[in-house]
Automatic annotation (TrEMBL):
It comes from Microbacterium terrae. GO terms for cellular component: cytoplasm. InterPro entries: ACMSD, Amidohydro-rel, Metal_Hydrolase. The keyword Lyase applies. Residues 22-370 form the Amidohydrolase-related domain. Keywords: Lyase. This is Amidohydrolase. Pfam families: Amidohydro_2. One of its GO terms (biological process) is secondary metabolic process. One of its GO terms (molecular function) is carboxy-lyase activity.
């Protein structure tokens, strides 16, 4: 049985210690029935029917999926609830055992409805649930958890209203959307979301999703055959969204807008920057950009470290990180509680030494406006 550290067990000292790790990709999950309290009854009924098997499908064939649903087996609490449904266990495993000083929650329950109505309702309920179950004084007594404003990218007007409703909350640090809906993000229909983000100086974070039905990610030659090429396709999806943001003028309309791509990998961005710059130079400035395409990436776009493309020759990784100036683009993420979890200590040792502090915590504290020091916790692992 797992021993959980609670506020009664730990007395924080008055002194502070420097933040060394900010984990930018953690997925809390509601306990069974927990979201219903915050959900429109009509949508709750639809979801209950789907939970009983109606219109349900699995697109993620992770190893031993039907045993642990692609999660760390030790992240399931003893009460039988789903992985990362217990804030105390998440605090134990992420903060005390692994050394993440601050944690950005990115709930996956805030999207994925079959209709815009469902997705908008799920986003609103997930935001209220985060505040009540994870960011409250009882479960966040240690002050290490921060939340995401879930917004339905396919419903820009109502998404903007949801952002306005939570933007003043000191614990919500990013706006969380998905990349799959069409058209691409350069379309003016999304401007209300970008405008709300800029107004409140909140970064937009895009977590990979799976899409629904006709919005499942598709390659130019059709749907993929295996999960292997399905996973690789997410980087291609992100690359197309990066190009749309740049060439369709989103950063010209909103120069201070900040975008974070979560779990879309990142090693592909260097050749994409080269290619965009080369085409821009060869074709002339037909799009009316005020600077080179690669400069928008450096000024406005960020990526998380997980998944880390790890070649057999570590020097190849080091060279790629140096060439792409990773210390200016990357934020650490663990992807807890998924089976692909990256331990902070493991990730940090694979970064060039001069990049460790910016990637592991520096970029995140600046981007999200997080504290740079926290009260020490007895027994907490220090990642590096």
């Amino acid at each position: 049985m797992t021993t959980i550290i609670t506020t009664s067990d730990v007395k924080q000292e008055a002194a502070t210690v420097p933040v060394r790790v900010v984990d930018c990709d953690v997925h809390p999950y509601p306990r069974r029935g927990d979201l219903q309290e915050f959900l429109d009854p009509k949508i709750a009924r639809h979801l209950r029917l789907k939970g009983e098997g109606a219109n349900n499908g699995v697109f993620y064939d992770a190893p031993d999926f039907y045993h642990a649903n692609a999660m760390r087996v030790d992240s399931f609490p003893d009460d039988g609830e789903f992985a990362c449904s217990d804030p105390a266990l998440a605090f134990q495993q992420l903060v005390l055992d692994s050394g993440s000083d601050l944690v950005i929650l990115g709930p996956t329950s805030g999207g994925g409805g079959d209709t815009d109505e469902e997705t908008t309702a799920l986003a609103a309920a997930t935001n209220a649930w985060q505040e009540a179950r994870w960011l409250d004084s009882e479960n966040n007594w240690h002050g290490r958890f921060y939340g995401s404003i879930c917004a339905n990218i396919s419903d820009p007007e109502r998404a903007a209203l949801e952002i306005e409703a939570w933007a003043g909350h000191e614990r919500f640090k990013q706006i969380l959307i998905h990349a799959e809906p069409r058209p691409s993000w350069g379309h003016p229909k999304y401007d209300p979301i970008w405008a709300a983000a800029v107004k409140h100086n909140i970064p937009i974070a895009c977590h990979l999703g799976r899409g629904q039905h006709n919005l499942l990610p598709m390659s130019p030659v059709g749907f993929m055959t295996y999960n292997h090429d399905f996973m690789v396709t997410y980087s291609m999806l992100a690359a197309n969204q990066v190009m749309s943001l740049i060439f369709d003028g989103v950063f010209e309309r909103f120069p201070t807008l900040q975008f974070l791509f979560i779990e879309h990998a990142f090693s592909w961005i260097l050749p994409l920057m080269w290619r965009m710059d080369a085409i821009h130079a060869a074709r002339g400035n037909e799009t009316g950009l005020s600077k080179e395409p690669s400069q928008y990436v450096k000024d406005n776009i960020w990526f998380t470290t997980q998944p880390l493309d790890y070649p057999d020759d570590k020097l190849e990784l080091v060279r790629a990180l140096e060439w792409m100036e990773a210390d200016k683009l990357l934020l650490f993420s663990s992807d807890y509680p998924h089976w692909t979890f990256d331990e902070p200590r493991w990730l940090a040792k694979h970064l060039p030494e001069r990049m460790r502090e910016p990637v592991m915590f520096g970029n995140a504290t600046k981007l999200f406006g997080l504290p740079t020091e926290v009260a020490p916790l007895p027994g907490q692992v220090r990642a590096f």
